[in-house]
Amino acid sequence: MPAPSIESVAADAWPSLPLDRWRDTYDTLHLWTQLAGKLALALSPLTNHYWNTALQITPRGLATLPLTVDRRAVTVAFDFVAHQLTVDGSDGRHAAVPLAPRSVAEFYRLVMEALARVDVRARIWTMPVEVPNPIRFEADTVHHAYDAGAARAFWQLLVQIKRVLELFRSRFVGKTSPVHLWWGSFDLAHTRFSGRRAPRHPGGLPNLADAVTREAYSHECISVGWWLGGGGAPILEPAFYAYAYPEPPGCPDAVIAPVGASYDLRMHEWILPYEAVRRAPDPGAALLEFAQSTYQAAADLGGWERALLER
Fold first, then answer.
1. Residues in CB range of 215: below 8 A, 6 or more apart
2. CA distances from 221 to 91, 158, 206, 217, 240 (A)
3. pTM
4. Helices 104-117 and 23-42, packing angle to 10 deg
């Protein structure tokens, strides 16, 4: 059989998702996922770069990795088909919270009650991270929107992006991260590593402990991912991004693809607007071209031993 390729995808698999059309739901859902991520942080041992806390793309939504509670495995999941948050244990216990318009404070209370029903006890820091003007979960009555259609479109798009980035990931034999969702910055990301230690990260990212940043960037890396926009950053609409840490000289002038991709001097990242991918004849191929060309540019400029790291 021929090797797998990025085939043409039906247009509705790459939905239009302008931020202003679902901004209230985006903000609320971001905070809800932070609650799940903080549970993962509390109930699993630290692995490389906090990968144990990232959320996974599933056939129904987003989920934590299996977490440990006593001698049980427990998973916390967002189901964007049935629109509920579920807590499932290896002992068969199950609890659910409907996903519907409600405040972060109410959602937090309902989730903690659901955890108690399946005998899961966890202490978490309830202050959100990487968001402007954070409000503790239990006090947040500001964010309360949930548009089920927008949430489902968001998840369906994550499925497509993960599908493409998993193929990209398969071409690399060095250390790589999973393709997973970071609930702090609220982006889907995949990272490759050269194997060499990186300079100490200066830290200073808003509402994020320097210790977290320094663990994340302890080794040389090149990342590619998708971000929804907003949050006070210069990029206001959904976009794909790629960057290297440490950034080698020459990145702004590197030749990358496809047409529509460029280097953003403010963010020190290559940016490809999501709309440019969505409108391409083959969106998956366009994304794969962006991931491959930015990796090659950064790896060559950074002196990576590509012959040892690639298939």
1. 49, 50
2. 39, 22, 21, 7, 17
3. 0.93
4. 30
